[in-house]
UniProtKB/TrEMBL annotation:
Keywords of this entry: DNA-binding, Sigma factor, Transcription, Transcription regulation
Organism phylogeny: Bacteria, Pseudomonadati, Bacteroidota, Bacteroidia, Marinilabiliales
Taxonomic superkingdom: Bacteria
Name used for this protein in its record: RNA polymerase sigma factor
Domain called RNA polymerase sigma factor 70 region 4 type: residue spans: 98-150
InterPro entries reported in the protein's UniProt record: RNA_pol_sigma-70-like, RNA_pol_sigma-70_dom, RNA_pol_sigma70_r2, RNA_pol_sigma70_r4_t2, RNA_pol_sigma_r2, RNA_pol_sigma_r3/r4-like, WH-like_DNA-bd_sf
One function term, GO molecular function aspect: DNA binding
Family classification: Belongs to the sigma-70 factor family. ECF subfamily.
Domain RNA polymerase sigma-70 region residue range list: 10-73
Length: 161
């Protein structure tokens, strides 16, 4: 990939990668860092990458960088150690979008990633399999199980509204 092609791929795919990462970790600063790390890794190998495969390579790299970041954060202190009574509120309301995001957070990481790639980013099963290094049938199984969980978690839409 030439420098011009690299710059074109940055312009073309950076927003999509950012949205994908942000949907997974829901932290804008960390998402920006992961996107930056992704493009840095791609830049280091840009001479070995074909421009035709740049999109797939970028999403694969972003996915693996995201997983590394999540694993690294497992060893950091969490908010669960803090006094929860200070942060509790009694206000209740029904926001379908918020409930959907809460449901997504309950999914295992693999299911969450494939659902986000399929339903939010619009990738087909084969592309998701390439990005996540899973088989196409495993991608389909994860999507099915994730959607079943979301359906059961959210319940009937009439109840929410």
């Amino acid at each position: 990939m030439t420098v011009k092609e690299y710059n074109k791929s940055v312009e073309s795919y950076s927003d999509n990668i950012y949205r994908f990462v942000l949907k997974n970790i829901r932290d804008t600063d960390r998402a920006k860092d992961i996107v930056q790390d992704t493009f840095e890794k791609v830049w280091k190998n840009h001479a070995d990458i074909s421009y035709a495969k740049a999109k797939s390579y970028l999403f694969s790299t972003a996915y693996h960088t995201l997983i590394d970041s999540i694993r690294r954060d497992k060893y950091k202190a969490s908010w669960e150690d803090a006094d929860a009574n200070k942060y509790v509120t009694n206000e209740t309301y029904s926001d379908v979008n918020e409930i959907l995001h809460q449901a997504l957070e309950q999914l295992p990481p693999d299911q969450k990633n494939v659902i986000l790639l399929r339903d939010y980013e619009g990738y087909n099963y084969n592309e998701i399999a390439e990005i996540t290094n899973l088989s196409e049938s495993q991608v389909k199984v994860y999507i099915f199980r994730g959607r079943q969980f979301l359906k059961n978690y959210i319940g009937k839409i009439e109840v929410l509204v």
